[in-house]
Amino acid sequence: MELLHIENLSFRYPTQTEDVLRDLCFNIPQGAFVTLCGPSGCGKTTLLKNLKPALTPHGQKTGTILYRGMPLEHLSDKDKAVKIGYVLQNPDNQIVTDQVWHELAFGLENAGFDTDVIRLRVGEMSSYFGITEWFHESTDRLSGGQKQLLNLAAVMAMSPELLLLDEPTSQLDPIAASEFLNTIKKLNRELGITVILAEHRLEEAFCLSDLVMVMDEGKIVAFDDPRHVCRTLTDARYTAGFPTASRIWQTAGGSGSCPLTVNEGRRMLADAARPAIYPLQSRSLSEETVLELKDAWFRYEREGKDILKNTCLQVQKGELFCLLGANAAGKSTVLRILAGTERLVRGKLLIHGKVQKPKDPESGRRIALLPQNPLDLFLKDSILEDLQDMCAMAGYTKEEQEAAITQIANDLGISHLLAQHPFDLSGGEQQKCALAKLLLRRPDILLLDEPTKGLDAFAKNELLAFLSSYVRRGPSEGGGQTKPPAKSMTILCVTHDVEFAALAADRCALMFDGEIMAAAPPERFFAENHFYTTAASRISRGIFQNTVTVAQVCALMKGNHK
Q1: Quick count: other Cβ atoms within 10 Å of Cβ 191?
Q2: Among 176, 210, 442, 538, which lies 20 to 30 A Cα-Cα from 97?
């Protein structure tokens, strides 16, 4: 039975000249789990919002959306609110009350449910989602994973028939993301709820899905079961984010059934290849330390818990250092301390070997921080105005400004976005525009907080190539052109994206219990981990050594066939 029937759906935002959605036609069966994927800005969020009347953006829409055979707009206001649930990408944008228990009850109260029904559903959801222990907590004290779980529980308290999720794992660590996705599948399997999940982290999403829809430029590229999609699509723009097992299978020739899971990938690899060792890459790091924390302690409140506990960190000049760890481990706090927006309680912060003190003239040092929410950096009505504003602050001449903006926009692929308002962009587009603005400051040290959030896998690879080039090239001194001898840039990246870290980092480290530990090259770091590691490492472990990326596994497969 069809739950949704979409026919010739097109949509255009008021300020744009082209449709964001273009003649979409598809059906969603009742009880299906559908994963929606595609390049950043391809229209995934716009499609989801058109399926939730309260969130449908202003613009020109044509075509038909039928919900159980009835035009979506003909549903009652209560049915629109209750039957169709929506979980946003950023959990902070969905939480509207100050207490967990009140957040669970808020939607039910506004929908006019009786007090007894509200109490029963709040209690049931709290128990089901494991919220009981923090039921009376303030919402602003929750971790990112807890906030997203709370948003899901609050939506589920309404007993929806259709659950729409817009990249709900983008701010979750690998373990929390896995648990969240498995919870979604459990709701789908046990309650028969139809799920449409827009997601870039496809490693586990594909395995849970009945159907996969791939979009690009507002059109549907493929809509079928996951194995068929992996078998038929070969364009790197789409396949870069597909499950690791399927990418290895494609590279190996694509014979037999397409594997999706780590277990299926291990069986394929064991049957096809002999044991081998991938040679470790020699990474020569500079002896100059540009960022250092010594015996650092920090807490946000005088009587609060310690976030940093005798923490030590060293980042070398020209290094791309990735810091991983669970939500609320203190990673973003480290970045704010390094950027000078927070002060240590005890210990030392050294920049280029110099101890930093409050109100030090060096507070204007050339360090740039990309925060988790890139919208925090935008102040103007268009991206171009924001970039021009940064150039003016950085002292560019008029000629240098134009050249610099042109070059950075071309490098990051945002030239077509310059006239748009920052709030009209997708999450991935906002990330790239915010990075462009920061780089126009010509920093020596770049601090990145979840830079791949909202980016599809192909865009991540482009970002990686750009950052790697920038590390080698260093910031220009004006005019947008690098002048030899170039200064190398140092990058410290906080990320939950283990695949990106494995490809990008010179060294990786794990933050746990207020300390930073186990700094090592990716091949050593990920080979030692079971959960904070890549799918390629899990698939190849015990067969190949030192392989943590798809490219490394495929390189060994070519010369080690059974």
Answers
A1: 13
A2: 176
Q: Are 460 and 468 in contact (CB under 8 A)?
A: no
What is the amino acid identity at position 22? R
Asked if 257 and 244 touch (Cβ cutoff 8 Å), the reply is no
pLDDT digit string, tens, across residues 151-199: 999 999 999 999 999 999 888 888 888 988 999 999 999 999 999 999 9
323 Cβ contact partners less than 8 Å away, ≥ 6 residues apart: 331, 334, 492, 493, 494, 495, 508, 509, 510, 511, 516
- Distance, in Å, from the CA atom of 458 to the CA atom of 472, rounded to the nearest integer, reads 22
480, pLDDT greater than 80: no
Torsion of CA 526, 529, 532, 534, to 10 degrees: 50
Q: Can you give the pLDDT at residue 389?
A: 94
Q: For residue range 26-39, what is the model confidence (pLDDT) as tens digits?
A: 999 999 999 999 98
470: left (phi over 0), alpha (psi -120 to 50) or beta: alpha
Task: Residue count of the chain, please give it.
Answer: 562
The 21-29 sheet, strands edge to edge? 21-29, 2-12, 60-67, 70-71
Please classify residue 236 by burial: count the beta carbons closer than 10 Å to its beta carbon, then call 0-12 exposed, 13-18 middle and 19+ buried. Answer: exposed
- Rounded distance, CA 538 to CA 404, Å? 43
Beta bridge partners of 447: 369, 492
Contact 265, 248 (CB under 8 A): yes
- CA distances 174 to 70, 395, 530, 555, Å, are 39, 41, 11, 26
pLDDT band at 458 (very low <50, low <70, confident <90, very high): confident
pTM recorded for the entire structure: 0.87
Supply 122's token pair. Answer: 């709040």
What one-letter code names the amino acid at 551? A
Q: Please give the structure tokens belonging to residue 351.
A: 């920049």
**From CA 31, how far away is CA 433, in angstroms rounded?**
38
Q: Which residues contact 363 (CB under 8 A, 6 or more apart)?
A: 340, 356
> Which of 514, 502, 519, 545 minimizes the C-alpha distance to 203?
502
Q: Residues 490-517: what's their mean pLDDT?
A: 93
Residues 6 or more apart whose CB falls under 8 angstroms from that of 454 comprise: 40, 89, 167, 170, 200, 426, 427, 428, 429, 430, 431
Contacts 24+ apart (CB under 8 A), 477-480: 477/442, 478/396, 478/397, 478/400, 478/404, 478/442, 479/399, 479/400, 479/403, 479/404, 480/400, 480/403, 480/404, 480/405, 480/406, 480/407, 480/408
- Domains along the chain with CATH numbers: 2-237 (3.40.50.300), 243-272+529-562 (no CATH), 289-520 (3.40.50.300)
